[in-house]
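Escalation from tier 1.

The customer reports that the assembly of two entities below gives different structure tokens on two consecutive runs. Tier 1 could not reproduce it. I'm attaching the input and our single run for tier 2 to review.
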Amino acid sequence: MKDAMTPATTIERLPIYYRCLQKLDRMDVDVISSKDLGERIGIPSTQVRKDLSYYGEFGRRGVGYEVPVLLKHLRKILGLAQEWEIVLVGAGDLGHALSKYGGFKKLGLNINHVLDVDSDKVGSKLGDVEIQHIDELVDVVKENNVDIGIIAAPGDYAQEIADELVGAGVKAIWNFAPARIKLPPEIELRNEDLSIGLISLAYHLSRK
Amino acid sequence: MKDAMTPATTIERLPIYYRCLQKLDRMDVDVISSKDLGERIGIPSTQVRKDLSYYGEFGRRGVGYEVPVLLKHLRKILGLAQEWEIVLVGAGDLGHALSKYGGFKKLGLNINHVLDVDSDKVGSKLGDVEIQHIDELVDVVKENNVDIGIIAAPGDYAQEIADELVGAGVKAIWNFAPARIKLPPEIELRNEDLSIGLISLAYHLSRK
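Tier 1 run:
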């Protein structure tokens, strides 16, 4: 797989293909053309073919893609064929929203552990998961071989939490705190800056 | 301004520059080099200069950027020098998280109106804003000349809400519902798909 050559925009579209194919599969659609797939996603068929070509030859000329086959391939490509242990740090509003977010479950991704600093929240449940105290962070990560840490805590604590997660063995951090954090290069880090979306809209609107 | 030529990645970095400069300004830093600015943001100085060159000649060779001047320019470029009327549809967990999100306020962006379908929530407050019933949507948008609509509602209702917002005069939609919506091309639309971040991490981790 020519991973280093795959554009980030292609990678970001893979989950969109995946969910579209899941829907088609549920509707018992067997085959879909790149044109139809593109129309459902809102991109040209040439882009669909280019995106998927980074990962192999999945379609047949004049026929299209076999939905269950492409779905299986994408599942593997996206790393969804394996189980991930995920810890969420911060059971505030955003933590609640993330743990209830329907989009993750549809993809087979589950938040397995939730930590919070507030002792009053400890023991109560967020979905199916019992909230544990943040002092348990290192134990939770080590005992469960947690792969991914989601930080939904105030910005002032983000770096400290990230350092603790990484020190305990977490290999990827998804940071929602409005603060940029720094981590060793071998750790996958994604800063999810919610304000960017809103500013981007303001930016484009102010140009009209 | 060469807007059509500006890469999306440059536009997405502008708010990051802006917040970094706000911080420097509060620290009474008068001048910053592209190297120092890049280091704070985590990108090379050449990229800083390239990004800002799309909007004008702000720096002085061998000196750097005057922080208050660049801040003022960026504020205008980002559309933050004007007031935006913003309505949030959906006062669930995500709605709560968005309306409390510190990052917006720091940028001078405020959610002015909140709507929800649940009559029990109507009249209670989300921050400083009283929740109104979703039946008031058209009136709220028209009476207040609302510019931007944020959808934090279940996916099944997203398209309907978006259509109502646009019909009432909203010019930009920020959609958090896990469903892709379609709108006329003149409307700015941003689908914020939260699962993409998590899948992107799984994707990269599965390659290690």
